[in-house]
Write a structure and sequence with these properties.
With 177 residues, this protein is α+β, with helices and mostly antiparallel strands. The chain is 34% helix and 15% strand. Strands 1-2-3-6-7 form a 5-stranded mixed sheet, covered by helices on one side. Strands 4-5 form a two-stranded antiparallel sheet. A hairpin with a 5-residue loop joins β6 (119-123) and β7 (129-133). The two termini are 40 Å apart. The relative contact order is 0.12.
């Protein structure tokens, strides 16, 4: 939640997002944390507080809707899988997804009202990055065939089509026939 809020703070020009930097949260603890500490008298009770929910309470209903729309927790890829979006670096969020799951995806997914392209970590069947790109269409034109040669040798049972933009995306070794 904090990383998504940091993303919105950086990328939304409305300026109405809370600053959730460590310094700011410490300075404003009396506003966002103190009201929830009433009756907390043990470490166990303190551990039951959910920091993400406390941060969410800083938002209006409208902001919560915009957060879900502009900084989604997951993106659905052509295979149908819901892939988590990683916001550790709010300046450059990324999606780590197996290459076969994005066959047929023409463009890089964008968030932040379509302004911010996700960096895509395209993974091998063993979940290791084989390409990192923010321009998926360029990857299909220029890089895919070199990556395909390498992966086809290492993973011969897997599906490596000659026309990746027209191929069926799959979570499996090969698409269902």
């Amino acid at each position: 939640m904090r990383a998504r809020l940091a993303f919105m703070f950086l990328h939304d020009s409305s300026g109405d997002w809370p600053n959730v930097s460590e310094e700011s949260l410490l300075e404003q603890a009396d506003t966002w944390l103190l009201p929830y500490l009433d009756g907390v008298s043990s470490r166990q009770a303190l551990n039951r507080l959910a920091p993400g929910q406390l941060l969410e309470h800083m938002l209006s209903w409208d902001q919560r809707q915009r957060l879900d729309q502009d900084a989604p927790t997951h993106i659905v890829v052509p295979s149908g899988s819901r892939i988590p979006v990683h916001y550790e670096n709010p300046e450059q969020p990324y999606l780590a997804v197996r290459l076969q799951e994005v066959f047929g995806m023409l463009e890089t997914p964008r968030i932040g009202s379509g302004k911010v392209p996700l960096t895509m970590h395209l993974l091998s069947p063993a979940q290791r990055p084989v390409q990192v790109t923010s321009d998926l269409s360029s990857f299909w034109r220029n890089g895919y065939f070199d990556v395909k040669k390498d992966l086809k040798g290492r993973y011969p049972k897997h599906y490596w089509p000659d026309q990746p933009l027209e191929a069926e995306a799959t979570r499996r070794t090969r698409p269902k026939t």
